[in-house]
Amino acid sequence: MSSDIVAYAETSAVDPRVQRTRALLLNAFRALLHERGFEVMTVQDIAARAGVNRATFYAHFEDKYALFAWFTRVSFAELCRERGIGKGTQHRNQVGTLIMTTCEFIRELNRMCATSFKAFEPMVTAEVVAEIEQVLSGWSSVSSTKARHITFASWGLYGLVRDWVVQRSEETAEHMSARTEPLIDTLLMYGALDNVPSLR
Taking phi first (over 0 means left), then psi (-120 to 50 degrees means alpha), and beta for anything else, what does residue 158 get? Predict the structure, then answer.
């Protein structure tokens, strides 16, 4: 994951000072996650590392769990961009990369938060699946795929990766990706075909 996280979802309408503060908090959170773990760190720790006060923290996030949710979404999106996954690409050249990227991200997050991963896994799942869905929806080759098929593909991809990580399978990420890619491709393909009147 990138060491300097940018709040990618901010728009130009947001005050640049807000963007800078959120970036400081995100980077502080990431550093503390590596150093201490999620359970031990406090809001005061995060604020102090970011160089802001507690009131400033709470002006942006309800608690450290809300920051963790934002951190998860931003970090995964950043990693996807680093791997060249984005809009306007053909999905057949990208599905495998997306699976490998998700494997890498969930495995690293599980490693950093091994003792408490199960406690906030529902939040991690929601954020990662939402980002996968956004990535799939933005690919030109699946633009005609119905929303429900993209949703099925997103949850299917995440679920297979999650099981691979949690079960600590001896299967390599490369092999797991090669095995999973045809399944995700099929879900996306049938979603597109479902839009053709003669094939419904």
Answer: alpha
